[in-house]
Design goal:
Length: 244
């Protein structure tokens, strides 16, 4: 696996996410509602719900907001959202995957298309870039929360069934097969590790440097997509600056 560091990107975008926390909570509430509606309100028997609840806690979403979304799913609400994926290219030819949860596909498709075209990108057909990404489990352990050194961490990750460990000064990043993600996560928690991030994600097989003269446009495109109320996740194959 390449040295692509999601943690670097997560930290880099954290302040921007904090600034629009209300919108982030609104999106998470929608994901919690759908997970509880389709698989039941008990996270111990609904892996999808537990996953999005973990995501909500990592975003510091209040417990009341989480429970409100679950109770709404238990009620008679007839709200329904479709999961839709859009694929395209950002400035510089960087592959982009966009996951959305929407109650109006036409509205969302139009908004995503506008975000691409106004910011130097192009929306592609289904399958145009998805083959360049792999679904993986992704876990981060902040090094300030553990005394484990890299050797101990590697041993525990391999014993738990993880595929890959990447180490930086401030974090251990662990990648797993999507199917074994839950068991790896649970094993690491049982071993006493505090997980800063635990999620299923899309990891690019290869990364593409964003040309210097395209970086501002590229960032505007990602911001426009993330600002869309219907968009849940934006994945890109952009190389981190320290990979250039």
């Amino acid at each position: 696996m390449s040295g692509h560091s999601k943690w670097h990107n997560i930290q880099g975008r954290k302040n921007a996410q904090d600034a629009k926390r209300g919108k982030v909570f609104q999106k998470l509430s929608r994901e919690i509602y759908m997970a509880a509606k389709s698989g039941g309100p008990d996270p111990s028997g609904n892996p999808s719900l537990r996953l999005v609840m973990d995501k909500a806690r990592a975003a510091n979403m209040p417990k009341d907001n989480i429970q409100r979304a679950i109770k709404k799913a238990e009620g008679n609400s007839d709200e329904h959202y479709d999961e839709v994926t859009y694929e395209g290219y950002a400035p510089g030819g960087v592959a982009v995957l966009v996951e959305a949860l929407t109650d109006n596909k036409n509205r969302t498709a139009s908004s995503v298309r506008v975000a691409f075209t106004r910011n130097g990108g192009s929306l592609g057909a289904t399958g145009s870039v998805s083959y360049m990404f792999d679904r993986k489990g992704y876990i981060v352990i902040d090094r300030s929360t553990t005394d484990a050194d890299e050797d101990q961490m590697l041993m525990d990750v391999m014993e738990a069934g993880g595929d890959d460990l990447q180490t930086s000064d401030d974090a251990y990043e662990i990648y797993t097969d999507a199917k074994s993600f839950t068991s790896v996560r649970d094993a690491l928690e049982k071993a006493g590790y505090k997980l800063a991030v635990s999620e299923l994600t899309m990891v690019p097989q290869n990364t593409t440097p964003v040309p210097a003269d395209k970086k501002e446009q590229f960032e505007k495109l990602v911001d426009a997509l993330e600002d869309d109320d219907d968009v849940s996740n934006v994945y890109t194959a952009a190389a981190d600056e320290d990979e250039d």
